[in-house]
Amino acid sequence: xxxxxxxxxxxxxxxxxxxxxxxxxxxxxxxxxxxxxxxxxxxxxxxxxxxxxxxxxxxxxxxxxxxxxxxxxxxxxxxxxxxxxxxxxxxxxxxxxxxx
Length: 100
Hints:
Layout: E1 3-7, H1 9-14, E2 29-33, E3 36-43, E4 55-58, E5 60-63, E6 78-83, E7 86-93
Antiparallel strand pairs: 1-4, 1-7, 2-3, 3-5, 6-7
């Protein structure tokens, strides 16, 4: 699956940093739900699509471990991107990735 991320510009501005513009990297965040919490991994390609400032598109999003509710990562599922105890972005799963 792919994942569209809208970063919280206010949070980053308060830290004196620009919103992330990840290229060819892997980020990690936590997904917290009433029945558990899991590590989620958005991966970015070296040629990210052009998006408005403060937005990113992860080419691939998946759970870090196998024993998780994989059915959650379906198009339309949204979750917060966390950094420590702060919500720094909103992620929405949008489409299956096209892999060969």
